[in-house]
Amino acid sequence: MEEADYRGMTLNERLFAAGKLDAFDAAVAERDFDRLIGLLASVHVTEPEAVAQTLLALGYECWFCGQAIAVGEDRAIAIGLSPLGVEEASAPHQVIYAHFDCAAANMKGSRHRLEGDTLFASEE
Question: Which residues of 3-40 are buried (b: 16+ CB within 10 A; e: fewer)?
Answer without folding.
Answer: eeebeebebeebbeebebbebbeebeeeebeebbbebb
